[in-house]
UniProtKB/TrEMBL annotation:
Upper taxonomic lineage: Archaea, Methanobacteriati, Methanobacteriota, Stenosarchaea group, Halobacteria
Residue ranges of every copy of the Preflagellin peptidase C-terminal domain listed in the record: 324-353
Principal location class: membrane
Cell compartment(s), UniProt: Cell membrane
InterPro entries linked: Preflagellin_Peptidase (IPR052218), Preflagellin_peptidase_C (IPR009655), Prepilin_IV_endopep_pep (IPR000045)
Region (Disordered): 223-291
Name the record gives this protein: A24 family peptidase
Membrane topology: Multi-pass membrane protein
Keywords, alphabetical: Cell membrane, Membrane, Transmembrane, Transmembrane helix
Highest taxon listed in the record's lineage: Archaea
Pfam (any one): Arc_PepC_II
PANTHER family: PREFLAGELLIN PEPTIDASE
Biased composition (Low complexity): 250-282
Length: 364
């Protein structure tokens, strides 16, 4: 045990606390960019293995029941939590960062830590009979994640935004999709729980070299696959870049000015022809029934991989909506690593929420 004055704890449990701010940073990074570098997890895995070996050496020397319990807890953490993380990733329930974070937690915190704060209180306050801490973090994270739709629905209700998507989405101006992660929750025929992935949208726009305001200004023109560029740009991975916030503001402003200009112009066929002639994207056909509207299939076929599972129909429907609507419903798409980090904090400070609830109901 090490006495730091304000906290007394075993050496390996104090070592494990170093991972907490890293998990916080990873959650923040995943919210901002939906990208967590793989190099984040290797040092945490090494830290977990070091703490695990240190704890095992100490307990093995004493032997007895505590050693046997430790072995069972580690076996359950590695044998249950790690496969669960992989399974949820495999079926699409987790992102890669979410699965890696949970796997690292299974190695880092297989047993309940023990911290004695000044005054004698021991944390976590509520421990389970099995004592697998990584599993408690997971169940706490699930409870936090389940509360999120309720909070989102309340937020929308207070603002009078009643919709079938109010528990999963937010209403935002069209330009917000350029800096948001998640999904567009609208199709031309109404709301949907699974629409166009916004990272895939940015990939498409970058591939064509288009701004969303350009597309909204002349949707009939750009809907024609004949306007696809002969030499497309790299689509990137769709991540929001450093300048995307400025681009979104500029796109919104240009969209407003374009709308005002179209109201003042003579319009008509002559205006459409002039617009087409001013573009080097090709000459659109008059027939609106194209084999590949928006060039959606051509874009996806040109990629080395997939655009986050996006289909041509997803892309076409999303572009049809964004070409017309001023305000759209989008999913914030909160990655699971965020409730996982919240579950870690709750677990360290309080313990297992589910076990506490079941105890209050007399079920354990």
């Amino acid at each position: 045990m090490i006495d730091l004055g304000f906290v007394v704890a075993p050496e390996w449990d104090l070592l494990r606390l170093l991972a907490v701010p890293v998990f916080g940073w990873a959650a923040w990074r995943d919210v901002k960019s939906r990208r967590v570098p793989n190099k984040t997890w290797l040092p945490l895995l090494a830290l977990g293995l070091l703490a695990l070996v240190w704890q095992a050496s100490s307990l093995h020397a004493t032997g007895g029941y505590r050693w046997q319990l430790f072995v069972r807890q580690v076996a359950i953490s590695l044998g249950l939590v790690v496969p669960l993380a992989y399974a949820f990733w495999w079926i699409g329930g987790f992102g890669g960062a979410d699965a890696k974070a949970l796997m690292v937690l299974a190695v880092l915190l297989p047993t309940f830590p023990s911290y004695f704060l000044a005054g004698g209180a021991e944390y976590p306050l509520v421990q389970t009979r099995i004592g697998v801490f990584s599993f408690s973090v997971l169940t706490n994270a699930v409870i936090v994640a389940a509360a999120y739709p309720l909070a989102l629905a309340l937020y929308n209700a207070v603002r009078g935004r009643f919709s079938s998507a109010m528990a999963v989405g937010l209403e935002r101006p069209w330009s917000a999709v350029l800096t948001a992660h998640g999904q567009l929750l609208e199709r031309p025929d109404g709301l949907t729980r699974r629409g166009l992935d916004l990272d895939a949208l940015r990939m498409y726009l970058r591939w064509r070299g288009l701004g969303l305001a350009d597309l909204r200004e002349r949707p009939d023109y750009y809907r024609d696959p004949a306007t696809l560029p002969d030499d497309p740009n790299p689509p990137t991975d769709g991540a929001v870049g450093a300048g995307d916030a400025e681009d979104a503001a500029a796109e919104a402003a240009s969209g407003d000015s374009a709308g005002a200009a179209s109201d003042d112009s003579s319009g008509g066929a002559a205006g459409d022809a002039a617009g087409a002639a001013s573009s080097d994207g090709g000459t659109p056909r008059q027939d609106p029934d194209y084999d590949d509207p928006w060039g959606a299939a051509a874009f996806l076929d040109a990629l080395d991989g997939s655009a986050y599972g996006t289909t041509p129909e997803d892309l076409r429907d999303g572009l049809d909506v964004l070409a017309e609507e001023e305000v759209v419903w989008i999913s914030p798409g909160i990655p699971f690593i965020v409730p996982l980090f919240a579950g870690l904090l709750v677990s360290l400070a309080y313990g297992d929420l589910l076990f506490s609830l079941l105890g209050a109901l007399g079920l354990v």
